[in-house]
Amino acid sequence: EPEVTQTPSHQVTQMGQEVILRCVPISNHLYFYWYRQILGQKVEFLVSFYNNEISEKSEIFDDQFSVERPDGSNFTLKIRSTKLEDSAMYFCAQRQGEGYYGYTFGSGTRLTVV
Amino acid sequence: GESVGLHLPTLSVQEGDNSIINCAYSNSASDYFIWYKQESGKGPQFIIDIRSNMDKRQGQRVTVLLNKTVKHLSLQIAATQPGDSAVYFCAENPIIQGAQKLVFGQGTRLTINP
Q1: Do A43 and B49 make contact, defined as CB atoms within 8 angstroms?
Q2: Residues 50-109 of B with CB under 8 A from A
Q3: Is the CB of A48 less than 8 angstroms away from the CB of B100?
Q4: Is residue B13 within 8 Å of B19, Cβ to Cβ?
Q5: Rounded to the nearest 5°, which phi and psi values hold at A75?
Q6: First-residue to last-residue Cα distance in chain B
Q7: What's the fold here for domain A5-97+104-113?
Q8: Which is nearest to A65 in space by CA: A100, A8, A111, A7?
Q9: Would you list the domain boundaries of chain B?
Q10: CATH of range B4-113; options 2.70.70.10, 2.60.40.10, 3.40.190.10, 3.20.20.70
Q11: In 10 A of CB B106, how many CB atoms?
């Protein structure tokens, strides 16, 4: 089964700093997602991305967040000015295509904002 | 609104016994459901899925039951092993205008006692 690789595995950043989280795409997977999990809570949807466009975003995904996948390379999540409450595990997920294909999750990036 | 919840936050069973984890969902537009296992520090790991045109699906030691009448989903794990100790999430996939995303429940922590 293909795996989703995320980098870094752990990042500590100062409040107000920008961070970029990366996800390596699986070959022929077309749909990309970012999810967030605050410690001890459920996994929350942030954004879905298809054909170089955002398909849907949640209320959490405000103007401080952005995603891109330049030239078919890594799928990235950028947080422009981090806040303490952004501390969480961030998971990238990918899905092959339409229909009932499973979502494959990465092992996550633990973001700690201090 | 969308919500997926679990009846019990924790469940302890003896090794070798069967376990049942329950989940209630509220979005009648969901037609695809997945159970994930999450071990500490790792991303959600796919266990089993089921489409809404089915009421039961079996895998290796796991069975998922879907009751659309009462919007209830359950995961049965047979002959539990220490490696089954983890947090289990149900997730639903509402199909709305082609957009797809997973909505997760709160999670149940399963502990297997020796």
Answers
A1: no
A2: 51, 89, 91, 98-107
A3: yes
A4: yes
A5: -90, 125
A6: 41
A7: Immunoglobulin-like (2.60.40)
A8: A111
A9: 4-113
A10: 2.60.40.10
A11: 19
Determine, for residues B46 and A31 on separate chains, whether the beta-carbon distance falls below 8 Å: no
Residue B20 is encoded by which pair of tokens? 């049942």
- Please state the domain extents for chain A: 5-97+104-113
Q: Which two tokens stand for residue A54?
A: 């955002």
First and final C-alpha spacing in chain A: 36
To test the contact with chain B by mutation, choose from A105, A109, A110, A112 the residue with the greatest count of B C-beta atoms within 10 A, namely: A105
Nearest by CB: A42 against B45, B46, B106: B106
- What pLDDT tens digit does each residue of chain B (114 aa) get? 345 554 458 999 999 999 999 999 878 888 889 999 999 888 999 999 999 999 999 999 999 999 999 999 999 999 999 999 999 999 998 766 556 788 898 899 999 999
**Tokens representing B69?**
């009448």
Close Cβ partners of A1 (under 8 Å, ≥ 6 residues apart): A104
> What are residue A89's DSSP bridge partners?
A37, A110
Rg (CA), chain B: 14
pLDDT digits (tens, 9 = 90+) for A26-82: 877 888 999 999 988 889 999 999 888 999 999 999 999 999 998 778 999 999 999
Chain A residue at shortest CA distance from B34: A102
Rounded Cα distance, A109 and A92, in Å: 9
